[in-house]
Write a structure and sequence with these properties.
alpha/beta, Purple Acid Phosphatase, chain A, domain 2, about 20% helix, globular
Length: about 160
């Protein structure tokens, strides 16, 4: 069995990672919002603290330039990409659909649909498939102040 540490919404609170460094896991997956609107300088050194393979996507509060930082690091950036690990395929889509908050990494529903249509072509129905997304599907644990804020395009692709 493979043990995976899944993290999201660090928002630059890197000191909290120390609690996880002593656990035994085989990989780390980060589902976005590594920073809180930046800065980007500490990201590579923070992620290099993990001594196992690390896979990540940006969140809506990450500057778009975080993709360049992730691609230059030892972390595998899965934004608009996919990877096969044995009988598991992980497709990634970072950022989020448009929000009322005007965050730095927002995509239109059309952009989300186009990218998901492209990357799900690489998923094999004979293996386990995971969509790594920062944004929730519309109608699934996606309410803010009683309003649904999830992505209709993500919902379309996961149902």
């Amino acid at each position: 069995m493979t043990d995976v540490l899944l993290l999201a919404d660090l928002h630059g609170n890197y000191g909290k990672l120390d609690a996880f460094l002593s656990y035994d896991y085989d990989a780390v997956i980060i589902a976005g919002d590594i920073t809180n609107f930046g800065p980007l300088e500490p990201v590579d050194s923070v992620l290099s603290r993990f001594e196992v393979p690390c896979f990540a996507i940006p969140g809506n509060c990450d500057p778009r330039e975080i993709i360049d930082v992730l691609e230059r690091s030892d972390t595998v950036c899965l934004h608009n990409s996919w990877i096969s690990l044995g009988n598991l395929t992980i497709a990634g889509l970072g950022g989020s659909n448009e929000t009322p908050f005007g965050t730095p990494f927002e995509l239109t529903e059309e952009e989300i649909d186009r990218e998901l249509t492209r990357i799900v072509k690489y998923m094999d129905r004979n293996v386990h498939n995971v969509l790594l997304s920062h944004a929730p599907p519309y109608g699934v644990l996606d309410t803010v102040d009683g309003n649904h804020v999830g992505s209709r395009s993500i919902r379309k692709h996961v149902t």
